[in-house]
Amino acid sequence: MPPGIPYTSLTVGAPREIFPNERRVSLTPQNVALLKKKGFANVLVEKHAGAQAQFLDEEYLAAGATIVSRDELFDRTDIMLKVQPPSIDKEVKGVKEGSTVISFLYPAQNKAVVDALASRKVNAFAMDMVPRISRAQTFDALRSALIMARRGEASVDQH
Q1: Which residues contact residue 152 at a Cβ distance below 8 angstroms, ignoring those fewer than 6 apart?
Q2: Are 74 and 92 in contact (CB under 8 A)?
Q3: Which three-class secondary structure string do you get for 77-145?
Q4: What is the mean pLDDT of residues 30-34?
Q5: Predicted confidence band at 141 (pLDDT cuts at 50, 70, 90)?
Q6: pTM of the full structure
Q7: pLDDT given at position 153
């Protein structure tokens, strides 16, 4: 089996969500700091990506992120973190070939998105498909989204 790619060679990116009325962001400044601590050399955040979730670019910078344009983020990102599935029209074509997208994908409802990502040789992890069991609680994004929605901090998916 070939060796994996070290974290220090990978760039994580969080674009601004473009889905209508989506206020969440896939990466908080606190999680930027955690990724940096884990050894990721580059964490990119699109300018104003966290604005709707009340996270300022300055907070991301203080946590160790690099604020970049949308085009630069899509060009340089090896692991893209998103809340909503990538838009076929506006995002899939820009995702770097051979990279990875981690998002709520709802693959049964978004076969066209999954197929479009596959045609670009993009790995895709559907957070909505992570089992809701004790061992997976740290990845339980559905629970986190529900808690945020109850606090009035985020919109709720319309899927």
Answers
A1: none
A2: no
A3: CCEEECCCCCCCCCCHHHCCCCCEEEECCCCCCCHHHHHHHHHCCCEEEEHHHCCCCHHHHHHCHHHHH
A4: 95
A5: low
A6: 0.81
A7: 46
| SS3 category, 62 | helix
Q: For residue 84, how many other CB atoms are within 10 A of its CB?
A: 22
Residue with tokens 């050894």: 39
Residue 76 pLDDT > 70: yes
Cβ–Cβ < 8 Å for 75, 90: no
Cβ pair 142, 120 in contact under 8 A: no
What confidence score (pLDDT) does residue 147 get?
39
Residue type, 89: D
CA of 12: how far to CAs of 27, 60, 84, 149, in Å? 10, 13, 17, 25
> How many Cα neighbours within 13 Å face the side chain of 83?
27
